[in-house]
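Example record for the data management plan.
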Amino acid sequence: MGSYKIDLKHEQKTMDVLVEGMFTSENALAFITDYNKNISCINTTEFALVFDGTNLKITTQEVLPLLENCFQLYKQAGFRKIVMKMGSSVIVKNQARRVIDKVGLLNCEII
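Corresponding structural encoding:
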């Protein structure tokens, strides 16, 4: 089961997102709700999204459309910069790269 934490750091102008484990559809939908609530109170063009998926597991085919939806939301929000820490799993990094390419998320760096 997956978990997440969203932390807005106004002084640093970052929205830090920590995700861990394997997400279910329920996890993903709860994340989207919390994400939307958090971005509603900031000017995203001034903020960087710092996404820590170091302990994220491979996304199942069932949840993949929701992952794509999340990346689309990141794109639409217009963050100044997006940094994704994806850990050492080549499979997880490649999955993230495919979704980034598919949605056209140009200001994203995977580390």
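Summary line stored alongside the record: The longest strand covers residues 48-56.
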